[in-house]
Fold these 4 entries.
Entry 1:
Amino acid sequence: MADVLGVQAELNNPDVTRASMFPSVRAALGRTPTLLLLEDVHWADEATLDLIRYLGRRMDGQPLMVVATFRDDEVAGMHPLAGVMGDLATTASVRRMQLPLLTEAAVAELARNVDVDVAALHRNTAGNPFFVTEVLAARSETLPATVRDAVTARAARLTTAARRALDTAAVVGATAEIDVVLDVSGQSSAAVDECVEGGVLLGRGPSVAYRHELARQAILDTMPPASRADLHRKVLARLLAGGGTDHRRLAQHAVACGDAAAVVAHAPLAAELSARLGSHREAAEHLRTALHHGGALAATDRADLLARLSYECYLTSQLAEAIDTRREAVALHKAAGDARRLGVGQRWLSRLSWFLGRHEDAERYALAAVATLELLGSGRELAMAYSNVSQLRMLSGATREGIAWGERALNEAHAGGDREVESHALNNVGTALLCEGDLAEGQALLDESLAIALADGLQEHAARAWTNVGSTLAVKRLLPEAERTLRTGLFYCTERDLDSWSLYMRAWLAGILLERGNTDAAVRTAREVLRRPQLSLVSRIVAMLVTAVAAVRRGEPAVNRELAELTAMARGTADAQRILPVALLQAEAAWTAGAVADIVALTDEAWVVCARVGEPWLLAELAWWRSLGGGVDTVPFDLPEPFALMRDGRVQDASEAWSRIDRPFWAALALAAGDPAQTSDAVAAVMRIDAPATAQAVRRDLARRGLPVPRGPRGTAQSNPAGLTARELDVLRLLVEGLTDAEIAARLTLSERTVGHHVSAILRKLAVPTRSRAAAAAAQVLGAQSPT
């Protein structure tokens, strides 16, 4: 403190000089270990910069660290700090650190409690921490005043000519060609160079660019509207005179300057390019723009734009707008007497009605399309109408009819050499075969459909192929294969704005996570889907099933409201693949609540509707629930193995069969029908997957059977961190001894197959890949046991 006071006294001496002052500061700072933090030194005055230069050259042997921060985009050209850094560049005690910009993951972490488009925020800010934090703090889509003020303050230091060039660059676009900036602004190259040297623009070869999109937007916002529109008009004229062919860019300038004719000329072409590049939301916006400015369009041209907009909205899950614009287009085609386009529009109304859960409308429009187009004879439009009916039949569970209509579509497609129709119809027939259990042939046809779609750039049909394979495999309880397929398709769809399918696939992934016992992740994923506006009804049903099932198993309130909503939605679709899962949820909810006697009445309608066309796994599960309620149903197929074992009372074998297909909830329910040791394991198992209400229901049923009621996990499972059962601990001890499965089986009087299942469970619970790694981890697990 005395040293600091001494320096302060010296500062107050009117005769003090830098030559005498700087050694005193150095001496004061070097008495004891010291950290000196100097922030924003790009704004420092000359004296401070001289002190930094002095200290930087004389820090050897001093217990002193000086941290000086500055914004590198403020230090360019002849900035005084640049000279200081140059002087200190070779000094051994000086280190310059360049902090990296924020990654998209880092932005996501900062924005985890803010509802914001993380990708857009990262793109618009280029990861600049100041811009990111200011936008998040503002919690608004408008440009924060702090960001605007920071940008305009820097621009205010420019000369009038440089500011004119800066404004022009903002209007030209994110990347502005220097020759266009010079021609439109009427300024010399020196004006552009001043902007670059001042750090407000970056030089990129023959172009310049703003460091951040938000900075460009800030400059645009400060420009008078008339001046901004005039610059857009000049830029449009300059680009057209230069033979510009980027219709997206031309349309943007046409809109900004109010040139309706140019908008109508370029926006549809811009939409076509955007769609081809997989930017379907952008394509939809271009089409809306063309329609908004197209007051003078002929009815047929307007109808075509409406149909195109409907398709882009369909791809991007903007379904209300998709069906409204398609209806408007159909009305115009009908008024014009264009039967071919009318039939196509009717087919699309069928497809959109299905997405919205309107089964009767979907059927009515589908058959109307066939009737309209059959009058015109063979052609791709009729073939696609046949394929649409095939799709509806397949989705409703009428697989034989779906295959028959699909074959009609394929015959038409082959006759006309139409690969798009072929891809669509192969998808329907292949999925129908998968649903019937013909996995090899169904997968082969779907692979062929996907290959055509990928080769020909048929993005919608590729998305459908991945979706149908993934969801069908999930229903068949082939969960690892289903997850791999869905994740591959999800990556493809996300990259191309194919939201109608990416959201559906994400909802199915949530269901797979739930089936595999990862309840928290499942609910989180499902809620992400449900937060999306204009979500299709089919995606909503799949995602709501996840949250509702989790709520039933956790004993959360408001389940009845979700059940009522799901029941109404599923009934409206008339699809077995919607009705059956909702019926299963109703049955499980009734059992969990202790209303077992209600199960049969709650599920009678679903059983009658779906018994002949439903998926065997789902029907077998429904039959099992109904049997708890006293139902005696005849299942028209051989039960899947786990259900057959449960029916026969082989609870341990049934539990192991469920474990093999990674369904821990059902593995636990199977054990709940066993002896006291097994029922204790059942309670522990459902608690591990966060299903306390299920555990309570198991205890309740045990009490009714007069069996001991476990209060929680068995001691052996509770007292080791991996939650291993007593038998699994026995097997683990023998693994430590290096015994084979056969040797363990002989020692414990078990079958070798059963030992193999126990070993698999141990590896999964310990999260290790091999037996040797399990043995290595055994010390911690076995050491954590309670004394026996």
Entry 2:
Amino acid sequence: WAGIYLAEKLCWHSRWINPGLTGTAAIGLIALFVNLKTNGKNKLARFSLMCGILLSALAWGTWYWQGIDSLCTNALETEPFELTCRVLSDPQQGSISYQSLVETSLPTGKHCRLRLYWPKQDELPAYGAEVRIIGSYKPLTDHQETLYQQGVVGTVAVKTVRQTHFPNDILGRVASFRQTNQQLLTADDNASGLLLAGVLLGDSSRLNTTWTGETYRITGLAHLIAVSGSHLAVIASLVGWILQRLGLSSRSEVVLLVLFIVLYVVLTAMQPSALRSAGMMAIIQGSRLIGRRAHAPSALSVTACLMIIVQPPTAFSLGFWLSVFAVFGLAVFLPLIKAWVIALPQLARHSKTQAKTKANPVVNKATKKLARLVKRQITEPLALSLTAQASTIPLTAPAFACVSLVALPANLVVTPLIVLILSLGMPALVIGWLLPPVLKPALLVLHAIANLSCWLAESMARLPWASIPIDADQIVCLLVAGCIAALIYRLWPKPSRSAWLVLLKASLCALLLLITAFLRPTPPEIIMLDIGQGDAIVIRDSSNCVLIDTGPSVLDLRRALSRNQVNHLDAVIISHLDSDHCGGLRALNGTVLPDTIYFADGLKTALPEAMAITNASTLIGMSSVQGLKAGDVLVVSRHLQLTVLLPRYPALTGGNDDSLVLCLDYDADNDGFPEASVLLTGDAETEILMEIINLYPNRHFDVLKVAHHGSRKSVNDTVLQAWACRLALISVGSGNHFGHPTNDALAILSDAGVDVLRTDLSGDIRLRFSASGITISYSNTDPFWSF
């Protein structure tokens, strides 16, 4: 994986053939040859084997990605063209349109992967379908490395879909069966149907964009809504039980079991995690046939290496690595953790209780029976969930920007329901295909179980401190986790009362330090968060905190809240309903729940079905969703106060012109005359802001939050002269396709003598207030200044 990763970085950033490719391959082959000659009997040979594998992987990866590079530059024409391709994924909702991963054959005969952006239409081509489209090709830009890591050579904006059909082959027939059942399961478009589609058919694309999908992620249940090794284990157990009842030979049993597993993997869109699990099962079952021991870590290593060699983009699949880490943790650490979990009740019992139990044979027998029941029903599932969660935290924490504190109990109560859905659902779909009348009552039962699962997950997410936001680097997490895992495996102590006491004390100390860090008071300050192309601003003083807007991304907001130690919110204010100002609202679910959420007065009545308003209602209840209008005052603390300047009339559309415009005043001595003022404009541009000059002619603002990310109409000379601003803040995403901030806006600010700070250049921008002035600091650079 390291070789493939380094090769991808080399090709993406240099974009030319690596001149050291031949030499790298030669060194790798020489190292492998040295190992073969010495039979790996000394440390030098083992070290040479490691180096040989790494260098060979680097050479192979460089050759593969260079081939992708050549296709990127010479794939297709830029003018509209006709193309026939095979859909490889379920349509996923993007920021602009739905998109799918497809494979096509070029006129040169070479195969390549493309990302199609579909036009707005009622029905989108499903996984496994063959489509003929007319569209325009675009090569990848410098900001599309994620697509490059999937082996995609370019994007196509589809103009017209000429033809869609399922080919008459195995993939086409299975995909057709899958689409029919998708439509049955999701006919009502409710959460239970989307959950069933994810669990049974591997289609979690729609569920991931819903509130329920976010709930499963923050409660540590994301692995249950995407096909993984646990799903295949349930299917394999079910099929194996049926085959055993048929009295088949061992060879026939193994062949049929592998065949059914392959069909299930195809049915669930051949996800990397499912392919990994299927490969492991095939190797283990093959080992049985040839009389070799079924060694899980070896089967895992062989399967993972083969998948990465055959398809290098697999190295960048989160689902694949979650599956690998979980299986590795279970194979290596489960016996150790299970021993401790099983020993815990025994260590807690008093010696006198043990003596009484031994003296009474009846009590002793009942106690043993109860102990076996507890071990089977509680301790073993507890050890299993604990091991799987601990093994995958180095991946899930950076990927989901949070660490779930309720993952263990959530898995214990929800996992059995998912197993039940799999055990009943797959036979129901197959039998319903043969006998359609049977399917309707079966679906009622499945929807009831799925609804219960969703309710339990949402209940867990509503618990205080269900999860904590975190901002962590993936590589750092992996390195730290690897060191900790090696240390634990080397020094793992036997279960004892003294060891449990040491572990308990260490945990309490860590918890105390964490609470101390979270509850540390802060001075009056305002922070413009770096959350990409959007707005998110934190205002706080001591333990009081208000968030204005949430930015577009759930993950970016969580990371920003984490790195600024925001662990409590008194209120959230949404300036208007554009997604770049309220799209991240779901990030607060289960992490930092606010007491109140404010919108512009009138929106709650005019647009009750708007996504932001329904998300706010789901988050804290409709009674806690309030409206703000001009003249309203929110007291943040003794020294900080927010005053609403606009809009004066009830908002009806939630667009830029309806933006809440607020003034933040800092009053150090509470004499009613603020020492500093900040104007927060949302996306209200100059035509709207001119009203403030007329309504509040004597107001001056030391700091201006530039409207609409520095658009062409965000500022003008009149407002800058009237307000006498000294500093302008611009929240903007790096390399955004809008061209924000515009040269016109920057020129106007420069000519007015206003200093400018931008989040794309400076990161989080912090303004800290005091009686002597404002101190400014920013995260991407060390210097700070004040005025």
Entry 3:
Amino acid sequence: MALGRSHRVLAVTLALVTLSVASFDRDNGAVHARTPSGPPPTATPAPIPSAAPQPVVALPVMPSDADLATAASTGVADTPPVPSGDVDVLAVAAAAAAQVGTMTTAEWSLDALADSFQGDPARAFAFVRDSIGFDAYPGVLRGAAGTLAARAGNATDRALLLKTLLDAMALQTRFAFGTLDGALAQAVAERTMVPPARPLQNGRAAGIGPLDVDAIGARARRDDALLRLTLGARLDTMSGATAADLAPEVRDHVWVQVAWGTDWLDYDPTLPDSTPGHPLVTPTSTSDTLSDDSRQSLRVEVIAGSLASGSITDGVVLDQVFDAASISDAQVFLYFQPQADDLGGTITNTLSGVQTWTPVLMVDGEATSGGAFAAGGRGTDLFGDAVDTPPLATLRMVVTRSVPGRADESGTHVLLDRVPDRLVDSDSIEADDLAPLAGDQTGPLALGVMEQILVSTGSASPWLQAVRRGVAADYIAALMATPDSLDEHKLGDLLYPLAVANASLVMASEQLAIPAATVPGRTRAYVDSPRVMLVDIGQSPTDASDFQFATDLLLDEVRVVAANADATREAALGAIWYGALESAIETESSLRRAAGLSDEPISLAGTSLDMSQPLQLLDGEDVPATGARALRDSLDAGSLAVVVGAPATSRTWWAIDPTTGTTRAILDPGTGGIAGGVAWGAIKHLPPPPRIGGGGGANVWHVNPDGSITRVPRGGGGGPPMGPPPSRCGGGQEYVTILGCVSIPAAWAIRIGVGLVVFAVVVDAAIYLFT
């Protein structure tokens, strides 16, 4: 049972909560569907048990027009802070357990929530109607658990949540489908601006963890003010959509029907005054399931470009499609392995000068290999024959989101690009024209980077994040207590703490940036399609002696809706403010990570870090003749750019949609992120904690029905653990994937040594957002 498998953590958590199901046959464990009869029930809300009061987190406030000059001069710290003392990971685990205790389990766990209704379907109906807000977007984005965590969803996701709760009561249910007319669709779309009548806990304190909200707010206010002052009169051309404009996206309506006597009772909780038995529209069809084409999805592709016959030929070497609702809670990593059945194969490739690599996509600890591609090389094979394979010129990851009724949108993350700007569109490229490919005997350094793919649908659970932080901290403590066995752990287990730490970026975005971009009664910001953030760690692509970390807000837009036409300018300002907040979160978390990794200087590059330089506004008429290719492409596509420094030499700028105000901080070659690096040898080592009982393994976490946490040493009894003991791969498996046992990528293991790689990953996780 791999610690890295987040769905197992959730499954065990929920299994520990008692579930009362009507008509449960305890002799054989079967659940029999029941069919109530009689008049339709009255949907009367019932209270949910409350936990301890949660800390209040004040959201950053967007500067007003009158405050711009003052906000623009706000002082911020662009150097990493000085860490105070050592990291006490056991204290982190204890704090996480206490944090979970402040949250009501029935407000975060589907099973506990269903149990709280005591078999009364009317109470489940009232809960969705009164406590789950409405967001206008097409198709399935969040699913049942995600809609509960987000506290909002469209009609389809709310129907999924309600059906899940009713199914837990052993009721026979199905989906009903209909089409809303124009006036009714507009009324439903405008429901987006109506807050829930009985709001649930927001979990903000647990979601943002130890991030410095004041520092994020100060940086965002400064950047937002500088951007707005630079944009000047261009702000007057920007406006957001109104809620009424979203009516076309809600016309396809979905709700739930419950078998009631000999008939079916409609459960449509869409409007605040909805009651059982009164749907908004007559159903045109019904089904037990939702169709696949009703779901929002993400496609992850890795594309390798090789130079052949004077031009670059692209080949898709990995292609995976995921349902957005299911992948949003997964731990997803991309890395590259030499294609070899054993170490001997790697040696053969090295001696011949020809190397073949394979992309590996690991989802919750389960690895899937893509197709092989050649890194290129010239030399002789083992028989002395000449070898000359097409050189690898480009390597990129493309993530495409598909939303029903919309055109697909893609984001491209460049992993390698050796083609000079002057030859981008040429069909007469020679191998000598390509930029040098940094590498060593194990291959290109660019293939020693690991990417975590973080997906945000608005449904990240602060409750589950707090539990995972505690489990990860306990696991780190166990690793530090037995450093001699680090190379025997599964890669999914070793990356679990880092995945949890990086997930704090998504949590901060959903719990801090998006709410702060909302002006109650005037505008509303929310996620309407899957967003993708990337975090890469590991080998520097240019220097084998350096450890690199970087983030990329690849697909990061959110929808900011205006209540009416009078608030559309505020919606556009909210989009700019959100972009500044996202950049501030990225920057402040990277500064924290840099401070924790090393006492030696760390190079950092990012748009917000350069804002002391002069800013220049460019549009399509001001495309520089030289400079970053991504900047010129963005301007050619119609975007505005607020360039930091001289356009011909700048590596950082802000890309701004001239119509909506959607804003992204860009770091050349076009990534929405920040990057940093430090020498491997300068990475700190955490002091080992006191040896933990129970054979030196991680503690067992029990989430009790009341939401409290019990932690006992492994082997101390008390039921199934939240954090399973680390499973061992065994020696000699650093280069292969066998029976699901994925160990350290070969490019890291050969160049750096397994122990140092693991220490870097673990220290990174422990420092970055854990303290």
Entry 4:
Amino acid sequence: MKSSPANSRIGARAFWSLLHRFSLRYWKRHWLKLALLVGIVGLGTGSFLAIGLANRAATRSFDQFAQTVSGRSQVVLTASLGALSLEDLRAIRRALLDSEAALAPQLVRNARLADLTESRYEDSVVTLIGMDLLAASNFLIRYGAKSGFLAPEDEEETSRAPRVFTQESVASEYGWAPDDQIPLYLEDKRIDLRWAGTIPQLDESYESAARVLIIDWQDLASALRSPLQADRVDLIWAGETPEEETIAEAVGSLQQANPGHWIIESQAQRQESGATMTLALRMNLRALSALSLIVAICLVFQAMDSAVARRQGEIATLHSLGVSTRLTRRLWLADAAFIGLLGGTAGLCFGWIMAHASTRLVTQTVNTLYFRASEESLSFSLGEAATALGLTLGFCLIAGWWPARQAARSPLVETMRQSGRRSSYSRLAYLIAAAVLAFLAWRAYLLPPLPAENGHSIPVGGYALALFCIGIAVCLASLSLEGLGALTRPLGRSHATLRMALSQFRKPVTRHRLALSGVTLSVGMTAAMVILIGSFESTVRAWIGNTLQADLFVRSKAVSSMHDSADLSIELYRELEHDARVSDIGSIRSQSVRIQNAPTQLIGFDTDYLHRIDHTTWIDEPENLLDLARGDRAIVNEAFASRFDASVGSVIELPSATKSTSVTVIGIYADYGNENGAIGIDQQPYEELTGQRAPRGIALHVGQPQEIEPLAAELRQRYPAIEVMSNRWLREETLRIFNRVFSITYALQAIGLLISVVGLGSMLASLLIERRGETGALLRIGVSPRQGALATLWEGLGLATLGVASGLSLGAALGLVLVFIINKQSFGWTLALHFPIGSLASLAGLTLAGAACVSYFVGRWSANRPLTNEE
């Protein structure tokens, strides 16, 4: 029978009235507990949101630096290998004769500001963008900009230093005023530029990326001593964003005129390229950030179970007055939603604050592995906020559902008899759950990965296997909890406080198991990350030891990370080659290239040097490395083999503006600095394909050890724009860079551990409140507050010890999953498994110490409270 609208209104009024009296009044009375709970949930939500915002900032900043004049570019053209020539630019212009699109060719290079203090060295890298300033000025003024780059009198100033334009904030940061000289390290040269003013823009509301210097492209080409060419061409329509049909027509015309080496992408596709490149990193950070939220939800489950246990009398009274079990369930779910809403809202605030620190850490990682990202791209996202808040509310409702179900289904007589103490769930249920999860884990292990847009794979089976392993560990830990109670007799004979503590585990309540689960989960995930980082570091150390065998390494100071490229002059190479102190010399050249429309690196190897100096870590060693000099052979790194499904014998097509070259893979080598992969050919065919002769890096072997430092000092003095690195310094710097990649994970691990320890203290506090009768009896028969606190200490420490043991076992299992499945499928790298015993022991010690402190002070608080009070 359907309820009438009048009955529905009465039911709604009864629900809201009961909610106020049953829930809100309770939390108002216990506001401190509510504040702690909301803070912990907010911390978990905030960490999840912060990573989401940081990931968005990193991907949004991809390619942002080049959208400087117009504020928006709708289509971008690049070359599949190298740069676009003047002939390419003419062909592009001819293809767009019927279009109103303006062309903005750009030459882009990284440079480093000279003469800055060492403390500002990390912030001294800038991006130089060479543009046709005359054409850009005409475009800006024609379509309503307040100013252009050039004034009429500028045409007469030909003898002065080339001018650059920046954002006002950049000029303020470095204290530049009009006509100030700006010394820069560009490739292996030091040049002086003149600050001419701020960057004019057509769209004043648009913020271009930070640390961008605009220069005339002829001036930049002259400084680079290279022919006039463009690294990219932006197509810009003035005024409002053009209709999709207009853009599609222009793209169609370009495709028809495409000689085969143009890459034509919409701005949305360019942004997607940035997201694709960082896909694996973002997914793994998302999974790790969810740890804090999941542990926080365990605390919500614990709090709801505690509230149900303490309010059994109220539940029984409501049932005796005729309140339905359905309405009782709704009240409890509303209670959980109230906590989730408050915690989620607090998490939005926490997340925005934490995002600033997270963005810096994520940006450092992206800068190291992928592309130059800008911290200034951070902005609040309603979509990310809605996702974080929705997950928090959903998880809180799930956490509140089971206690609500138990409370609503408890018979009245049983409810009154329990008097606030709830028995734990059946051990058989945990055993069955563990068996089911073990079966699902086996199935997940057999699940093949999904192809990912970045060319690697999405390890859905690995993620599922890790989740099921967590479930198995939690179930097994919960099953072993009664084992602590079995130690009551042998360990408690001479220690009364220990016996009091262990007796609580003879019949542990659900909150014991929830607190144990939180510690197990936090320690397990942290231990797994420790094992992954330890395996990565030990593998990289071995790789560096084998790879870096030269005495000195030379590169441009403009290089700040792995993705940067800056040439050294061929004259510098020839000079070093003929230096009597140099016993051997090797060089490497590289350029970005698109293969199968995916970005990777083309490397020109000095084959003779590779053969003379055995410094390559091979995954699949060539039968004869000298075959590389034939010109139709190549070696690839492991990430390339993974992304492009290549193996020894595979044929790879290399694009070029003049011809297409096929090479056969003869070997696969290890390389832990390039997730996008690299394919290497001999330097001679490399020069023919790219037209590039200048090396990117030079390795020097010095004949006499005592001459290493004098030679390095001499080179630094003669060539201030180059960086001369000793073998030892480069090893340490490489390890520092790789450790920086994992910097964000340390903060996430700390948050998860903090929440688990606080959850343990909250569990003990709620149980001690329920056991006020027992505590009062013990105090009256002579047990001192100190002994009561010690009993609580042993209880918490017992739980923490079992949680640490379970967590370390879980961490070992998850470490195997991370190293051999998730890492391999996400990044394409093979790591040697390493268990850092010292770090794992420190993790266990810190967790136990934190648990001991929290447990003791909770025990002192409980023992010193008046017995007449409820809390």
